[in-house]
Predict the 3D structure of the following.
Amino acid sequence: MSPTRIRYRLAGVAVATLAVAAVTPVIPASAAPSATVSPGTVAPGGRVDLKVEGCGTKTGRATSRAFGSVPLNPDSLRPGALSGAATLYADAPTGSHPVTFECGGTGGARITVTLQVAPGAARGGLGGSVDSMSTGQVALGGTLAAGALGAGVWILRRRTARTG
C-alpha cells in the first residue's frame, strides 16, 4: 500500500472518530449532586423549599438544626430531582445553619448548603417583595387609582350621551 493511501485512510478514521465524538453527549462519570434551599434567608417560623438534583435515587432527606429532618421525594416537575419543604422552628437561632442533603439511605451522596436565619417575623402577603411604603407612595397610588376610576366613568357617560 502506498504512503499516500495510508494517509488518506488515517485521515478518514480521524474524521469518523471526531464525528462520533461530536454527537456523543458528555456525561460525567460521577456528577456530584447539587442542592438549593429557597429562600436562602428566612425568619424563624418561616417555610423553605428544599431541592436536590443528581442523586440518582428515589428518596433522600434534608437535615438542619433550624428545622430537624425532612424526607425528600421525587419532584413531579423535574425528573431526577428530589424535593421537600420544611418549616423552621419558631425559636430557631439567627445566623448561618448548614442544611445537609443525603441521597438515598445512610451512606448515600451528601451535599451541604447554607441557610440564613434572620431575626424578625416572617413576611406574608406579597411574599416579602414590599419592604415599606412611605405616605407619599400611598398617596400617589391612591391618586392614580382615583384618576383611573374617574376616567372610566367619564368615558362611559360620554358613550351613553352619544347613543341616547
